[in-house]
Amino acid sequence: MAKMAIIGTGNVGATLALLTLQRELAEVVLLDIVPGLAQGKALDLAQAGPVLRYDSRIKGTEKYEDIAGSALVVITAGLARKPGMSRADLLDKNSRIISQVAGRVKEFAPEAIILVVTNPLDVMAYVVMKRTGFPSKRVLGMAGVLDTARFRFFIAQELGVAQKDVEAMVLGSHGDRMVPLAGGSTVKGRPLSKALSQAKIEALIQRTREAGAEIVGLLKESSAFYAPAASVLLMAEAMLKDKKQVLPASVFARGEYGLEDVFIGLPARLGREGVEEIIEIDLLPSELKALHKSAQELKAIMARLPKDLFEAQE
Ligand code: A3D
Question: Is the pTM value of this prediction over 0.90?
Answer without folding.
Answer: yes
